[in-house]
Specification:
The structure is a single chain. The protein contains two helices and 23 strands. With 441 residues, it is an all-beta fold. The chain folds into two domains: 122 residues, no CATH class; 296 residues, Beta Barrel (Lipocalin). Strand 17 and strand 18 form a beta hairpin. The radius of gyration is 31 Å and the shape is elongated.
Amino acid sequence: MALVCSVAVAVGSGAPKVRADGFDGFVIPQRGPQAPLRGPVRTADVSVLVPSMIPAMAPEQHAEAGPAGDVEAQNGEWTGEWTGEWTGGQAWEVGDGATCIDGSGTESCFAGGDACGACGGAGCGTCGHGAGLFQRLCGDACPRWVVQVDALMLWPANIASRPLLNSYDPVTDVVGPVALNANQAQPPMSAGPRVGLIYNFNQCHAIEGNYFQVRPFAGQAVSRPGFVVENNLAGNTFPVDTDTVFDSATIFTQASIQSAEINWRKRECWCPITWLAGFRWVEWDQQLHLDASASGDTPFTNLFRTDTTNTLYGGQLGMDLGLWTGSTFNVNGIGKAGAFLNHAAQASKYQDSLGSFEAVRAEADGIAFFGELGVNGSLQITPWLAWRLGYSLFWLSGVAVPANQLAVTNLNLNNPPSTAQISTDGSALLHGVTTGLEARW
């Protein structure tokens, strides 16, 4: 069934007319005032929807709608300005990008206008006119609900550098270059779910919630062949002798990130910007395990382990920017950032095959930064369903990472007692691809 949307179109140089129901915007034809619209209307015939400069003008009576896809002037002639209606199911991109779900042109939210108007397209349901009291109090919004379900695939990019073991020549008794560094355990891609929900109160205001979790970011690295000795691991230093020289060592790392947020969204009607303000919680955890062993007549093993947790919570600000709006394909960029309270903790332990064991723990509160950047494209599959593909980047700073705890921890097997502090001068960078589906109704 053909849908009807009404506009006031300026074809000449005079003042724009105002629609009878109070709409105070008009459409500028791309072909200019010297090339009036005739016959079927195409996307190229319509440019940008701008607010009327004279919103208080007397209403102008509407013309009857012509055949589907046609536009007719009120008096049948193309002179000066006119007010009319068009019908049809073509894909329209007018105004601030507000469209009915089937692609028909709609009004914008200028002067509190209605983004649904008379279109009420397929998949739009009643366009916000629900039977519930809450729906009626909120006002018109099309769509009312937006649900996004994605797979988030991330790579860590800045593993902290910390020499763990050095090579050793037992013949010359010389300690050589680094044989194993913490940043050699570069994890591969890890994936997890991302879920988003948006509720539109009207065309310009909405509330959203997002949650994602990615793990385990498991990395592994092996020391170079030959004998190795420890490089001041957690203050646990030994003289180089037969009990502290190893012939193999392996480092294992893991990490996980999860985040939940709730934001208020305010859409600008003069440009494709939506402002964001809200609350966010982020948890970033890491583990570092070092297993060093010596073979021979008396096998010997040392195990070091350091775990860190960072719990961030606080306010954030952001922006959702429309980069490209088409009939079936849209692109938007998003940025969010905030200064967060970070409750950081570290737990370190040492044990060996002889039964020795030491464990310490430290925690502190501080300020950390968390930021998110991304670009997303969506391709309309059906009137209510779209496929999403995007790129995301997450940056944390002011956090505790395992490699940085080795310098502030002393795991002494004898007196004095073991001690631990916590370092929160680390950072983490994660980036990757997101893909999924978006449903609107």
